[in-house]
Amino acid sequence: MAEVYLRRLSRWQAEQQRDAVADVYVSAYRGAAGAEHRDRQGFLHRLEQHVQHTGFDMMVADTAGTVGCAYGFRVPRTGEWWSDFQGELPRDIEELTASGRTFLLAELMVLPVHRRRGIATRLVERLLIRLDADLVVAATGRATDHPSGGPSGGTGDGADGDGGSPGAAAEAFRAWGWSRFGVLGPHIAPDTAFGGASGADSMAGEVWIRRPLR
């Protein structure tokens, strides 16, 4: 296959290339027949909101067109992202969120034909390498909720973690040095989990955390 190049997009560039990124989303999280339009429109709506968040940052992978994407932003200081956290949220996590020092890895996806090539790993590393934050978080669907995978969340196709089942997402995060932190839900908001347009609002989500790469 042709060499894959990574590049960082500004907020303006991300908005300009939203259709190409949405195409990757539909292929990476393809759900039931007939759901493509709903999923695409849901993703575009979330992306429109996400690019407005403080600290929004996006990396894309290109070869003959866009084949992958990872993006995130600062968790809002209000702490609403943690509102469905099951259990007592540690004080240091509350403080990092309130001070704007927590970054959310909101989306990670790679076209199926380009998986298992380390692209997702490279996207995440490049996205986080210059990050000025003290904590990075991500939420995925729980493997026990959707054992067959699908568009409900998750980042993995094997340890490379680039679009697929929640169980593979867990495998990928562990391989990348992340730690399982707890559970959000069972009413996790659709825009907080990978692939959130199709059913993430009805299931619990696993929360993973790590310190940013330096």
Name of the CATH architecture: 3-Layer(aba) Sandwich
CATH topology: Aminopeptidase
So what's the oligomer here? Answer: single chain
**Full CATH superfamily name:** Gcn5-related N-acetyltransferase (GNAT)
Shape: globular
Major sheet: 7 strands, mixed
Average residue-wise pLDDT = 80
Amount of beta strand: 15-25%
Question: Which radius of gyration do the C-alpha atoms yield?
Answer: 16 Å
Structural domain count: 1
Question: Could you state the order of secondary-structure elements as H and E?
Answer: EHHHEEHEHEHEE
Q: What's the arrangement of strands in the largest beta sheet?
A: 1-2-3-4-5-7-6
Structural class determined from secondary elements: alpha+beta
Main attributes of the structure:
Aminopeptidase, globular, 7-stranded mixed sheet, 7 strands, 214 residues, alpha+beta
Q: Can you offer a commentary on this structure?
A:
With 214 residues, the protein is α+β, with helices and mostly antiparallel strands. The chain has one domain (5-210): Aminopeptidase. The chain is 28% helix and 23% strand. It has helices at 11-16, 18-28, 36-50, 91-98, 119-128, 166-175, and strands spanning 5-9, 57-63, 65-74, 102-110, 135-141, 179-184, 205-210. A seven-stranded mixed sheet has the order 1-2-3-4-5-7-6, with helices on both faces. Strand 2 (57-63) and strand 3 form a beta hairpin. Helix 2 (18-28) crosses helix 3. The chain is globular and about 45 Å long. 43% of the residues are buried.
Summarize the SSE layout with pairings.
Elements: E1 5-9, H1 11-16, H2 18-28, H3 36-50, E2 57-63, E3 65-74, H4 91-98, E4 102-110, H5 119-128, E5 135-141, H6 166-175, E6 179-184, E7 205-210
Parallel strand pairs: 4-5
Antiparallel strand pairs: 1-2, 2-3, 3-4, 5-7, 6-7
